Amino acid sequence: MTTAPSSTPGATAPDPRRWLALGVIAVAQLMIVLDASIVNIALPSAQEDLGISDADRQWVVTAYTLAFGGLLLLGGRIADFAGRKRMFIVGLIGFAAASALGGVASTAGLLFAARGLQGAFAALLAPAALSLISVTFTESKERATAFGVFGAISGGGAAIGLIVGGVLTEYASWRWCLGVNVPIALLAAAAAARVVRESKAEGNTKYDIPGAILVTLGLVSLVYGFTEAAKLKDPGKSTEVLGWTDNSTLTFLGVAVVLLVAFVVWEGRTKHPLLPLRVALDRNRGGSYLVFLFVGAGLFAMFLFLTFYFQLTLGYSPLKSGFAFLPFSIGIILGAGVVSQLLPRLGPKPLMVPGLASASIGMLLLTQVTADTSYWTHVLPAIVLMSLGMAAVFVPASSTALIGVGSHDAGVASALLNTSQQVGGSLGTALLNTLYAGAVTAYLTDNLRGSADPKGVQSDAFVHGYHVAFFWGSMLLIAALIAAIVLINARKDDVPSEPGVGAAV
After folding, report:
1. Which residues contact 23 (CB under 8 A, 6 or more apart)?
2. Residues 140, 153: one domain?
């Protein structure tokens, strides 16, 4: 998740407090992973409490993922050169402050801003945590154990977040899904000050600030363009949305294209690029990043719409919704263990292709849900197919992302996986939420007038919107499948013996 760390000069003896340091780092990583899933469960309650529109609710997710993904590479550089321990502590304190702000937010705008701040500080915290493990554990077996703990938390933390989010939302308030971070982050920062050893990377310490600004503003403009398309032309008086051809929508999308093209041009010319193009343009590495981009776009949106389906359509409590997602997390954890054993024998492509096909079928199955279908017959088979399929994608894609990478680029190559997933998640959530809102509005316009059962029509409209979102989510997973078929050609002998830590939903 960060640039390749170098050992601290003169640090030859193992740190006697390294296992305590791992405990602190693990707590911080768990908090980051929890924060994505815990907010999903709380989102229906937050939307109702703050009066957030259907078009704007995706900002609770995308504000975080955009800031996190857009600033992650820069955050890794800052942590390496300013001091990993220092930025780790700064990230924890900032994350606590942003969480507190979100927990007391009285307006939708303040909540969105707090989520963006959380993402920005997570972009400092996450790469610093990963680098600290690399420099703290110098012996290969101990390092493998430490990364195993880190990976298990990354994979299993989402499941814990779903349950914790359900408990807090149901028995306290959705606000505690943010507020719970405050004591955890502050205690972790205090412990880190005592047990974590400082380290810095050597070399040039120049930062690509223009690149970070261009890519972040470009992505924000793109998401805002998607959001504009779903907004009502005359709120309260009309159900007609602005649409894709409205001047406001086209303006934001056009600005996004200009900024993102400028980012690519700048990265090809600057001496200290945020994203070295040589890393992304390799066939296998670029294919891995595209796969993670499309997978993130499909899966983040799946979590969002299934949450609303569970709570608003099926009438599940937040806690029951959390447990309903549990098979997905369990499937990824168990499947990843099997895939890790098969990868050296089969290579990446024979695992990724059937995995993405399975996930695409699972997402398509969700288009069959209705307002009264059974979870066990319609939802569970779909999320099991998706979870096992994703296990067959995350592990090999994390390895192919490092094929042929020199030590100087190893960190940024690994970080791009997480960046791709977070950016994909923000774009996919915004795009599919727009398609969902448009589908619901069109259904209501066609069926509500003169209906003897307006509540029934509204319920059917929501389900129709879910179907549209799940269909296009499956198309995003199919796009990932096509990218894997066309671009990934690595053989089993090409896979690095020590793959990087991949991103996890």
Report:
1. 191
2. yes
Cβ pair 103, 54 in contact under 8 A: no
Matching residue, tokens 């796969």:
291
How much is the pLDDT for 131?
A: 79
The confidence score (pLDDT) of residue 408 equals 62
What pLDDT score was predicted for residue 192?
A: 93
The partner residues of 241 in beta bridges, in order of sequence, read 232
According to the model, what pLDDT value does residue 238 have? Answer: 52
Residues 390-418 as b/e (b if ≥16 CB within 10 A, e otherwise) read bbbbbbbbbbbbbbebeeebbbbbbbbbb
CA angle at 301 for the pair 306 and 415, rounded to the nearest 5° = 135
8 A C-beta contact, residue 134 and residue 5: yes
Predicted pLDDT of residue 229? 75
Q: Which residues of the chain have pLDDT under 50?
A: 1-11, 499-504
| pLDDT mean across residues, the chain | 85
Cα 360 vs. chain centroid, distance in angstroms? 19
Q: Do 19 and 68 fall within a single domain?
A: yes
Distance, CA of 423 to CA of 222 (rounded, Å): 11
386 close to 359: Cβ distance less than 8 angstroms: yes
- Rounded to whole angstroms, the Cα distance separating 260 from 219 reads 8
Say if residue 256 is in the same domain as residue 374: no
Rounded to an integer, what distance in angstroms lies between the CA atom of residue 111 and that of residue 59? Answer: 9
CA atoms of 103 and 38, how far apart (whole Å): 13
State the CB neighbour count (10 A cutoff) for residue 281. Answer: 9
Phi, psi of 199 (to 5 degrees): -155, 155
- Short-list 421, 408, 388, CA closest to 501: 421
pLDDT at 145: 78
Residue 203: per-residue pLDDT: 63
**CATH code assigned at 154:** 1.20.1250.20
Please give the C-alpha separations between residue 315 and each of 45, 133, 310, 459, in angstroms, as whole numbers.
13, 43, 6, 12
Q: Tokens 């363009």 belong to which residue?
A: 225
The pLDDT value recorded for residue 8 is 42
**CA-CA distance, 311 to 314, in Å (whole number)?**
6
Q: Is 384 exposed, middle or buried (0-12, 13-18, 19+ CB in 10 A)?
A: middle
Structural domain of 172: 15-203
Q: For the residues of 155-207, what is the DSSP string, one character each?
A: HHHHHHHHHHHHHHHHHT-TTHHHHTHHHHHHHHHHHHHHHPPP----S----
Q: How many CB atoms lie within 10 A of CB 172?
A: 12
CA distance 279 to 402: 9
Chosen domain end from 159, 185, 203: 203
